[in-house]
Amino acid sequence: MKVRSSAGLRDRSALWFEDGKLIMIDQRALPHRMQLVSYSDSGSVAEAIRNMVIRGAPSIGAAAAYGMALACLKKEDLRVAAETLKSTRPTANDLFYAVDYMLMRIDAGDDPISAAEAYAQNIIDKCMAIGRYGSGLIRNGDIVMTHCNAGALATVDVGTALAPIRVAWNEGKRFTVIASETRPRLQGLQLTAWELIQEGIEHAVIVDGASGHFMRKGVNMVIVGADRIAANGDFANKIGTFEKAVLAKEAGVPFYVAAPASTFDFDTSCGEDIVIEDRSSEELTMIGGKYIAPQGVNVLNPAFDMTPARYVTAYVTEKGILSKEQISSMRG
Ligand code: MRU
């Protein structure tokens, strides 16, 4: 990811290991400040995941992998560290996948930092492959809609849904990205738009409720990331994704889900079994530290929704563009 700072434009990923510490870009401070935070034990990494210093399924997974490596360095009880990390957010499969991967590598006697570094690099490599496969779906002049942030910040680097967009743009194709703002935490407005601006990709942000309006006017494709994809192709992603999928079907717009193997959960047979995280009511009632709702208001705040596989045109993965029937090739 290209990041513009006072030192100019430089390459940076969402997190990395340096001098015995895990460093993360604090995504809560973006787009206003490039604030780095560092962690040296698994408990504080767990807190960072819970508080959304880092977010996006593959980045959460990588953070947890480094959290397990730190637990090893600090000689913490590894089973406790694993459970603490897994308890932070329930929906993203990558979190559980990463912790189990690290337990396996540590049990095998591998160096924990090297294992976590390999985990993070592997995600980047998969995102690059997703980008190469998915770029072929984008044509000159297209309008490509996305939701939430499934870019470099969410995936260590490159992105899932944003990977085909980056690759197609770098190949010289010219098109426009429509990013929905993504209430209540505004990942579309604050993170996706920030990434697109860093790379000079033409875009516009819309309010979530404007998706249908723009689809009727002529969106060419929708591409989103995923937090967990069940064995039958149903998937969970940021709240508002299901609405977009239904609107896309109604408008005849192809709808793609971009994700690496770590997001596929073949132990969950269908989307109804995916645990959807409920987050604090304050995400809705507080803006800029100010309480904006009537006293006594009741709030429901699911962070994700589930979209049935019948709405998905195809899955863009590191193994190619797969139909629902082909996703079993992502197993193992
Ligand atoms: O609550 P968040 O910001 O972690 O939610 C992120 C999303 O829903 C992303 O779209 C998803 O993790 C895919 S990221 C490549």
What is the correct CATH architecture of the largest domain? 3-Layer(aba) Sandwich
Termini Cα gap: 29 Å
Global geometry: globular
Structural class: alpha/beta
The low-confidence runs, each spanning 5 or more residues with pLDDT under 50, are: none
What percent of residues are in strands?
A: 15-25%
Q: What's the SSE pattern?
A: EEEEEHHHHHEHEHEHEEEHEEHEEEEE
Could you tell me the number of beta strands? 18
The fourth-level CATH homologous superfamily of the largest domain is Translation initiation factor eif-2b, domain 2
**Radius of gyration computed on alpha carbons:** 19 Å
**Strand arrangement in the largest pleated sheet:** 8-7-6-9-12-17-18
Small-molecule binders here are: 5-S-methyl-1-O-phosphono-5-thio-D-ribulose
Number of helices: 10
Helix content: 25-40%
What CATH calls the topology of the largest domain is: Rossmann fold
Secondary-structure map with pairings?
Elements: E1 2-5, E2 8-11, E3 15-18, E4 21-25, E5 36-39, H1 42-50, H2 57-73, H3 78-86, H4 93-107, H5 112-135, E6 143-146, H6 162-170, E7 176-180, H7 187-198, E8 203-206, H8 211-218, E9 221-224, E10 228-230, E11 235-238, H9 241-251, E12 255-258, E13 264-265, H10 282-285, E14 286-287, E15 290-291, E16 304-307, E17 314-317, E18 320-322
Parallel strand pairs: 6-7, 6-9, 7-8, 9-12, 10-13, 12-17
Antiparallel strand pairs: 1-2, 3-4, 4-5, 10-11, 11-16, 14-15, 17-18
Helix pairs in contact: 1-2, 1-3, 2-3, 2-4, 2-5, 3-4, 4-5, 5-6, 8-9
Bound molecules: 5-S-methyl-1-O-phosphono-5-thio-D-ribulose.
